[in-house]
Design goal:
The protein contains 15 helices and 4 strands. With 315 residues, it is mainly alpha-helical.
Length: 315
């Protein structure tokens, strides 16, 4: 009975997500759902490192920003297709993730955290000071929207929120399936072994370097995809994409939703993107952050493993 009830909830959630533009009439609410989808991609990417390898990356906003700038610069300055820009937005952060993974061969824990923070700081300084390339603090306006060429309709602009919502949903589904394939494969079992006991995992033949680098590359690529989607949605990229608050928000979504699960980061992204908007409508600015912090403490105190693991245990 409980399993059938769970399937009904999942099916209802999928139907609600698929039909959201039909019943969400307020454009701002639809905007919130689009941002929740972008953050779901980012949370899924961070969860690969934090949830499955046990490595905390506090520089994940760097991969997000690299993806945003890569796609924005290619489409604005070189006038490339936005779809090619999205491909580069995935590939360039993946390359940066490979470099970070190789540098992290001999360091773990707090040293890995410091490495990721330092990397994010360097990239942020480059975006601010390389005026000829990035336009510095003024940002990069005029990023073109995504367009889809269909044989029977010609070019269809994805500028509207309803159309872009489905692009973001498709990206979330793609990232979810990539994570699902990794977790259920030999790679996922190796990552969990590294998280639980790295020395023991290495003693039974698991190549620690290979799997840590692989997890970092895939995680960075998905974060870059989120950055590219953000750039073409807002049509403006500035050094603010490297803000540390983005990384903190991702960590909150992963931990509160349930790290080491696939549904947890998605649920956390939806809840903690919508929560500030609900508080903004309910109370004044002075009380918003206080209530946000109190609610977060309550969730972590009563559900220390996250929302999804707590629901799974009850079920």
């Amino acid at each position: 009975m409980r399993r059938s009830g769970s399937r009904i909830v999942v099916a209802a959630s999928l139907v609600a997500a698929a039909t959201a533009p039909a019943w969400v009439w307020n454009p701002y609410h639809l905007h919130t759902l689009i941002m929740a989808g972008i953050f779901a991609v980012l949370a899924l990417s961070l969860n690969l490192l934090l949830g499955y390898t046990g490595q905390l990356s506090l520089g994940h906003a760097a991969f997000f920003g690299i993806g945003a700038y890569a796609s924005g610069l290619l489409t604005v300055k070189l006038e490339w297709s936005p779809w090619i820009g999205l491909v580069v937005a995935i590939a360039l952060p993946a390359l940066a993730g490979w470099v970070i993974g190789r540098l992290a061969l001999k360091i773990r824990g707090a040293y890995f955290v410091l490495l990721t923070i330092s990397f994010a700081g360097v990239v942020s300084l480059v975006s601010v000071n390389w005026m000829e390339l990035t336009n510095g603090p003024l940002g990069l306006p005029g990023v073109p929207p995504l367009e889809l060429a269909l044989p029977w309709l010609g070019e269809v602009s994805l500028r509207t929120k309803s159309a872009y919502y489905y692009v973001v949903v498709a990206a979330v589904a793609l990232c979810y399936l990539v994570c699902l394939g990794l977790v259920r494969s030999r790679v996922g079992r190796a990552l969990v072994a590294l998280r639980e006991n790295e020395t023991l995992a290495e003693s039974v033949g698991i190549n620690v370097t290979h799997y840590l680098v692989l997890a970092t590359v895939v995680s960075a690529a998905m974060a870059g995809l989120g950055g590219g989607l953000y750039a073409h949605y807002t049509r403006f990229v500035s050094p603010e994409v490297f803000l540390f608050t983005y990384t903190v928000t991702m960590v909150i979504m992963v931990v509160a939703g349930g790290k080491g699960t696939l549904a947890g980061p998605v649920l956390g992204a939806v809840l903690f993107t919508a929560l500030p908007e609900v508080l903004r409508a309910a109370t004044s600015w002075q009380w918003q952050m206080l209530l946000y912090g109190v609610l977060l403490v309550i969730v972590l105190f009563f559900l220390p493993q996250g929302i999804v693991p707590a629901v799974q245990r009850r079920r």
